[in-house]
Amino acid sequence: MKVLLVSDNHGEGQILDRIVQIFGDQVDLMMHCGDSNLDPSTDVMTPFLTVEGNTDWGFTYPEIQRATVDHEKVVVTHGDHYSVNSTLTPLSLLAEAEAADVVGYGHTHQLAVTTADNHLLINPGSISQPRGEYAYIGGTFAIVEVTPAAWKVQYYNRDMQPIEELAFDWQR
């Protein structure tokens, strides 16, 4: 299973449209980790399973989205209700409670990926307003390939190019 994760575009629809055009037929699932600031009924949002971010006022996105493809479960939340600015423990507990193989989150605008208790926890970073160590890239999203044996993570920049130093493999 391949899932594309994107987050925190804050109203910039063109970048999402470009991601869908280029990667839509290369992945099994596309999930948005919140703060899209775009109405769920807009054409650019319909390809994504999307969660509500802390700036998605007035939209009807759920707090959590769940999907299962090829027996692999992915759960996405924005992260603002899970203290992601200071700890990943609540996300690990969510992963455990949901029996999720992958938990995606946003909110911090900083890409991050780690494993915890046989769950992959991943922030694709902000595609439009990046912060932190990798802000110089100018925005990122990620594709996660999940197999029974491994997780493979590849981050991409706004030019839709893989970032060589941001490719990760973990055995499960």
UniProtKB/TrEMBL annotation:
Start and end residues of each Calcineurin-like phosphoesterase domain: 1-146
Enzyme Commission number: 3.1.4.-
Cofactor: a divalent metal cation
GO molecular-function terms, A-Z: hydrolase activity; metal ion binding
PROSITE patterns assigned to the protein according to its UniProt record, in alphabetical order: UPF0025 (PS01269)
Domain of life: Bacteria
Pfam families, per the entry: Metallophos_2
Keywords: Hydrolase, Metal-binding
Similarity remark: Belongs to the metallophosphoesterase superfamily. YfcE family.
Cited NCBIfam families: yfcE
Name assigned to this protein: Phosphoesterase
Annotated source species: Limosilactobacillus gastricus PS3
